[in-house]
Amino acid sequence: MKYSDLLDIAKTYGDPIYVYDSEKIISQFHRLTNAFSGVKHLKLNYAAKALSNISILKLMNSLGSGLDTVSIQEVQLGLLAGFKPESIIFTPNGVSLEEIEEASKLGVRINIDNLSILEQFGSKHPDIPVCIRINPHVMAGGNSNISVGHIDSKFGISIHQIPHLLRIVELTKMNINGIHMHTGSDILDIDVFLYASEILFETAKNFKNLDFIDFGSGFKVPYKKGDIETNVEELGKKLSNRFNEFCKEYGKELTLAFEPGKFLVSEAGYFLTKVNVVKQTTSTVFASVDSGFNHLIRPMLYGASHQIINISNPKGRERYYSVVGYICETDTFASNRRINEITEGDILCFKNAGAYCFTMASNYNSRFRPAEVLWYDGKAILIRERENFDDLIKNQIDIKDLFATKKQQVGVK
Fold this sequence. Notes:
The protein is 32% helix and 23% strand. By secondary structure, the chain is an alpha/beta fold.
């Protein structure tokens, strides 16, 4: 996309606004499938939590992707978007047995990550195939909040609990059709990933009726020019070879599965905001925009770095700015960042805004959530309207009559 296209979108639909480039999503999907072209059966299950707009889900479905879901609502969204139940895998954490049973009734594949629910589900539904999420006790990921495969993580069944797991499977006679792991996001060292994969292969040998092995995801994307990223081509070659070897040892052609989210949509996303105020203090020049961590929380929550470009003046002289939001507490997007000279009214573009950005937006400070636009076939298509005041209060219940009664009672006394 060109900066002029983004400026036109901001002018047409207002700001702040999220924009997603479908061409980038499609190219990332093909890049990953090509990297693992050496395996006979590959299944990419898009992680809906990264960006769950139904139009994005429909795009993924059109590419032949499956869907990785973590809530019953994401399952329902996937079905509404046209995914077949068998193309959806339900991988929740810490949910009730009732929610897992509800998903199972919809016909989706079930992935269980704790012994308690595994025993309960297996006792009641031994004929329903189940995938098991293993915790390989491998530390991977770019931030402690997104490293989910280490020994202190709440996710998965510990590899040290395999004997207990096998006992449950034996007693319930349940059918285990898949083994799964997810070590974390922003994986840089593919050798760490391959090491965790060996643990998964070793675990898989305990189960004789597997259909697939799911290696999770967490591939790192570049956040700025020259930034490092996961070498998916090298990983694809090495893991494909090892996977094919394991299938021969296992005596059956299995499906190699992944659940990419950020890798597919992060670089496709742009977040556009308008500069309200340029404020010079004794030590800093602040560029205050018409947004905040209510719309883009990742910099404050994860310390994430999003490249910021002044698309209204992309060739202007670079100066140092701290870009901040309008929320009533510390709300910093970037500190002392070199950006082309900013004036009030300019449009700033935050790159890598496709994953875990809109989906984590809120109405904090009673602000409206922004609109979303899909750039498809050279055209801007509105895929979510900007919220308004009616949206903000539609589920609230006005109890003014109750307080009026109380006021009258106080007056009588």
